[in-house]
Amino acid sequence: MRKRNLLxxxxxxxCGNLYSQxxxxxxxxxxxKQLELEASFEAKLSAKNLDAWMQKMAAEPHWVGTExxxxxxxxxxxxxxxxxxxxxxxTYHILFPYPTIRELELxxxxxxxxxxxxxxxxxxxxxxxxxxxxxxxxxFSTDGDVxxxxxxxxxxxxxxxxxxxxxxxxxxxxxxxxxxxxxxRGIKPKLAAEKGAIGCIIYSDPEDDGYxxxxxxxxxxxxNKTGVQRGSVMDMPLYPGDVLTPGYGATKDAKRxxxxxxxxxxxIPVLPISYEDAQPLLEALKGPVAPxxxxxxxxxxxxxxPGPAKVHLKLEFDWQLTPxxxxxxxxxxxxxxxxxxxxGNHHDAWVHGANDPVSGMIALMEEARVVGELAKKGQRPxxxxxYGAWDAEEPGLIGSTEWVExxxxxxQEKLVAYINTDGNGxxxxxxxxxxxxxxxxxxxxxxxxxxxxxxxxxxxxIARQLVNGGPGTFSLSxxxxxxxxxxxxxxxxxxxLNIGFGGENAGGEYHTIYDTYPHYKRFKDPEFAYGIALxxxxxxxxxxxxxxxxxxxxxxxxxxxxxxxxxxxxxxTEKMRKDVEKHNSLVSKNAFELAAxxxxxxxxxxxxxxIPFIDFxxxxxxxxxxxxxxxxxxxVSVEGLPLSKKEALNxxxxxxxxxxxxxxxxxxxxxxxxxxxxxGFYTGYGVKTLPGVREAVEQKDWxxxxxxxxxxxxxxxxxxxxxxxxxxxxx
Length: 731
Hints:
Layout: H1 2-18, H2 28-43, H3 47-57, H4 67-82, E1 86-108, E2 112-113, E3 138-139, E4 144-152, H5 158-166, E5 175-179, H6 187-194, E6 199-203, H7 206-209, E7 231-232, E8 270-273, H8 275-283, E9 310-331, E10 336-346, H9 354-376, E11 383-390, H10 398-406, H11 408-414, E12 415-420, E13 427-433, H12 438-445, H13 457-467, H14 486-491, E14 496-503, H15 517-523, H16 529-547, H17 556-596, H18 617-634, H19 643-654, H20 656-659, E15 677-679, E16 687-689, H21 691-698, H22 702-728
Parallel strand pairs: 3-7, 4-5, 5-6, 6-8, 10-11, 10-12, 12-14
Antiparallel strand pairs: 1-2, 1-9, 4-9, 9-11, 13-14, 15-16
């Protein structure tokens, strides 16, 4: 023990020397103290707790509204309380559809009735819980009873419909069948409905997560022939959360939309199926053979249709208001109780959810346990730390969204940052979020050790990039959507992070009955080593945000990242212009040759509308001005700054991310206010950076593009004014 303490002390001294100039937000005299706190925090983390807690939380299915979901929430609240937190459960009443009728049948040229049931597997008793298992379905599909010819649409994303158009295939009045992956699942029925389809089937192809990838469960981690991925198809790019209370909390007495007026419920019925059920439908299709890039792993020739396969799809749901239980645990700060740092992970699952979300939830709990233990021993954080365990994430980020909407004003006044996690497993550190936090996260990633390789999680990530031909740098990705950070950053304007480990934990259990404790222990993170790594990384981030002398925001890297986003859009616009000019030049050449010799035979393309001049200079000018202010701010020293000025500076910095929002939101979706990051209108989870401008360019809406350029320039001008204010507070 004496030797271990000596090594720990030497490590702390080494770290203090190594990082004396590089811990963002800390004055030199507080760096060693912070590193010592973090070392103590790491030493107290226990993988045994994670193992035991996963067995407890994933023992039974616990989707929103279940008794076991409520029991888990109450158990977590009690755990937080025992660790010294003020814990409570905040309940919202949300619309949640439960399937009552699910029928899918091939009616011609042959007959086949889909089984729509996954089989239990030997060695995993959780898969044999019978009626306790949630039926496979897509939440927020509309009810429907339709029959029509079938058309295969590959992944059902925009470029697939462009290919269908080239082939002269129309899905109007048809039922489409699409593969999972390629985009978020909700985009598939959304696009299909816009193209005139009357129904949508989504299946898991073995090429993506079945036997083509590896042995199937229980022999291996991948999806067997009966596995079905559940999931929401709510139109979340419009707004996430309760479909009946857009923009405000779904409290018990809240005013609600009529269900028929809820825009985020799909316009056509949607059903997910296994590849066992998909194969007879796809085999019955004729028409053109699918392009090579569309072909999957089934032992069939993939045809597109339409027909002669005709299918009958019938769906009905019980649409009920359901309680969603959020657990909120608060540890009051010793010096700045009205400045909050928040951590969150959801606790609801589609079935057992060992990987998604319990693996992330138990890491959060272990982090909270140790932070609470340190606080009891006199090492209470300076700022208040709040832990959130969200309910109803799976059907549409509902629990977190309702809580943010319900507490929006208070959060904007007090919340410094939100750090999100979700499912977790063996592999590489992944981090996305507000780029003002990039410097701080990089420093943490440089000190947390990867349990498999013994190097830092930053070094391992860089090595992977280099092997794959990447730039070999550590950076945050931009946040689109797909987890509970969305309402914080993209609606309330709170600086946010989403972190986790993965990349060596592939499988086919996602949202199926096979996402169980035995599956996780065998294939995901057997020793919970990466669960501890997650608790370590997230805990250090939380503690640095909670204890920093000045909030650890950095703007130079932020500016470089934003400038690169603008360059991408400008380059794409120029490429589009050149493509149009090249195309129209060919049209003119063909017309000239035809006039000279009418006997020439060739396909005569039609001219495309020329792209007008797009003036990006307002953004360029605002970013140039902003660069000067950033340089001035980064040169400011806060050492010796009076406490009153330091507090005023922190208070002003707390609102930085809100400056990057606009209350009018994005075109056609005002809920999304952030002007730098948003999920794409047709990508779902996938991010669109500088979304107002980028999507207008992509849709070739040049008038809107110019309007959004001016709007974004105003946002950056506001950021410049904000930075000038920060500078003045240090004078």
